[in-house]
Structure formats: C-alpha cells, structure tokens
Amino acid sequence: xxxxxxxxxxxxxxxxxxxxxxxxxxxxxxxxxxxxxxxxxxxxxxxxxxxxxxxxxxxxxxxxxxxxxxxxxxxxxxxxxxxxxxxxxxxxxxxxxxxxxxxxxxxxxxxxxxxxxxxxxxxxxxxxxxxxxxxxxxxxxxxxxxxxxxxxxxxxxxxxxxxxxxxxxxxxxxxxxxxxxxxxxxxxxxxxxxxxxxxxxxxxxxxxxxxxxxxxxxxxxxxxxxxxxxxxxxxxxxxxxxxxxxxxxxxxxxxx
Length: 256
Prior knowledge:
Blueprint: H1 2-12, E1 25-26, H2 30-47, E2 50-61, E3 64-75, E4 79-85, E5 92-98, E6 103-107, E7 112-116, H3 120-127, H4 133-140, E8 152-155, E9 161-167, E10 170-177, E11 182-190, E12 195-207, E13 210-220, E14 225-236, E15 252-255
Parallel strand pairs: 7-15
Antiparallel strand pairs: 1-8, 2-3, 2-14, 3-4, 4-5, 5-6, 6-7, 8-9, 9-10, 10-11, 11-12, 12-13, 13-14
C-alpha cells in the first residue's frame, strides 16, 4: 500500500505519437483546420477559469493496480491542489499543491513532505512523471502544453490525421475532435523515439457549454505506469477557497 501513495500522487496531479522518423505527408488545407483548432482551443481556455474534478482514480504499475478516490482543484494554470484518499472512508493517502514556481507533496503513509521547483526533472525523480507543472496543468485542463504554435497537420500512411510539432528534445502529436471541439489525445516522444507520455480523453460531458472529458487516461512507459481518472463530478468556474494545504506537525521535509 505504500506504493499507492506515490502512484496515486502522480496520478492525481492527474497512444503513441509521431517520432523523429515519420512516414506520411502533410495534409492539405492544414491552415484552415489549424485556424479552427486554434480558435476553439483559445475560446475553451478563456472560458475555463477554475476547474474541479472528483471521482475515482485507478493506477497501475507493472502488473499491479490500485484504486482510490481523488479531489482535484485548479485555478487557471497557476494553482493546483490534489487530494488522494483510500477507496473506502476518508483516509488521506497523499496531497499535492503546485504553482509554476513551487510544489509541495505530502506522503501521508511515510509521514514525509517534499517541496521544490516543479520542473519536469524534479517531478520525474519524485513522482515518476516527466512533465513540468505547466505541462500537467495544461493537460488536466484538456489543453496543449505550450499552445498550438508551430503545429502542422499530418496524415499518416493509414490516413489518420493529427497535429504534429517538433520541439527541442521531443515530438508532440495531438488528435482533435471537431464534434467535441476538444483534444482526444496528446502524446510526446523524445528524439530517440521513446514515448514519454500519452494522454487519452474520453466520455465527454457537456458542462456549461463545453465538452469536458470525464475519463482521462495517462501512460508513462518509462516508469511502466498508467493512471485513469474517472470523474463523477466536474465543476467549472467555481474557484476553491484555497489551493494549498497545511502539513501535520512534525513532518519531515525535503527540498529539491
């Protein structure tokens, strides 16, 4: 059960993408489609100030899996508060608060706390997640980390259309649904062709005029870890009273 805290914490802050060697071609009419995607995602971002999820979280690592409950509150991309509980009762497993400059992670089972700068390097070494706080915040909101700039439309040999962007050190691929006006998949590979993360969005529900995914699945192959969030409650634009938590007295703190 001790591993559940680490796995679920990763999850709470919470399928393949194009690599550096690609076969296929640029899709025609990409400017028009990219303009539509840019417009829809821009409107979506503007219309979501705060976001809250509550429900079940299922995590797996290797051949084992665990289940718990979670509450996640975000204000834009600046503030994030996650609480993970045992599947029965209200026993806290772990908590995470994060901003672009600072994070605090509480491991309730081990009675320890870790704080520091929420870079991709730090979050990977602590939570096995090769994503920065900004990446996590965008992906939880159903947005593209770094925005849509420099993406191009791409069609593979099977005719699947996606949006692809090459950035320093990795390649990103996005699948976008015009009917949902939302991202249905985000994936990232490094220059060696290794998948770093894949996020799939499904079971969209209308919430205040927007289609919000009630099921989010994240895969981190390097850690042999996966996470599924099943949201029973979704609230938009009802800011929480706080995006921080207080540590119990006497908790050992480490800094990265």
